[in-house]
Write a structure and sequence with these properties.
about 260 residues, single chain, 3 helices, mainly beta, 13 strands, 12-stranded antiparallel beta barrel, elongated, Porin
């Protein structure tokens, strides 16, 4: 130990001298001779190559799938798109199903999406219900965002013709089993303020959809998946469907693809 002390002391002295010599040799650069003149926002954004007000967009095919039940098979979709800036966007969403060349049920919404907090946005727009039975149009107000627990959540309240009202709540969450294998449970609940027998809808809570999908992300933008879904129509809606020869409850197997750009 005594033999090491002189060596350590010598190394410390050499390090101190090297630092002192480096400090003496340092020459600070000259201050800049050019100054940026006052300029409008557009000129500054172009010069710096960035502009947080520039519009951009996205198309999302959350579900493009084939469904098989005990009675039939059908194609189902759930797609959305938006275009705009960081705070204000034009937003479009469509979901539905089609079997034997006939659209069974569909919902299309278009409106204005406004960011109101870091996690939530307000939506105002219109909704069109198509498919079997007469079409329905609604004015809509709702919100969408990320709830505690990392749940993607959206809810809408709708007012239609002849005093009709409706409520829709939907949510899902991604569980990463690996970096590419993702399990996604989802839920959708609908309620209506009054009976609409022509569309087999009763007043109150009308239907509940629960699904579970397992996808493999070949890329983040492209992922095939398989899954199951349970659809239940209850209350007056279930009675109307059974009277029309339709199933009130249904369990389907599904396979599809998810993608965005």
């Amino acid at each position: 130990m005594k033999r090491l002390l002189p060596v350590v002391a010598m190394l410390l002295v050499m390090e101190t001298r090297a630092q002192g010599q480096s400090a003496l040799e340092h020459v600070p650069p000259e201050p800049p001779k050019s100054h940026v003149h006052a300029m409008p926002y557009e000129e500054m954004a172009e010069m710096m190559g960035m502009d947080d007000r520039k519009p951009f967009g996205k198309f999302m095919a959350d579900r493009l799938e084939w469904q098989e039940s005990a009675d039939d098979s059908r194609f189902a979709w759930d797609v959305s798109a938006w275009y705009g800036g960081d705070f204000n966007k034009l937003w479009i969403e469509s979901e539905g199903e089609r079997a034997d060349g006939v659209t069974g049920d569909s919902r299309t919404e278009i409106g204005w999406d406004r960011i109101v907090s870091p996690w939530w946005s307000l939506r105002l727009g219109v909704r069109h219900d198509g498919g079997e039975g007469p079409s329905r149009e609604w004015a809509s107000i709702g919100f969408a965002g990320l709830a505690p627990g990392m749940f993607e959540l959206e809810a809408g309240f709708y007012v239609g013709e002849n005093g009709r009202t409706a409520l829709r709540i939907a949510g899902d969450k991604d569980y990463l089993l690996t970096q590419r294998l993702v399990l996604q449970p989802e839920m959708e609940l609908a309620a209506y303020g009054r009976d609409d027998p022509e569309r087999l809808i009763g007043a109150g809570f009308s239907d509940l959809k629960l699904g579970l999908r397992l996808r493999y992300e070949i890329r983040r933008e492209l992922a095939p998946y398989v899954g199951v879904r349970w659809i239940s129509h209850f209350g007056d809606s279930g009675d109307l469907r059974e009277a029309a020869g339709e199933d009130a409850d249904e369990f389907v197997w599904l396979a599809g693809i998810r993608g965005w750009f």
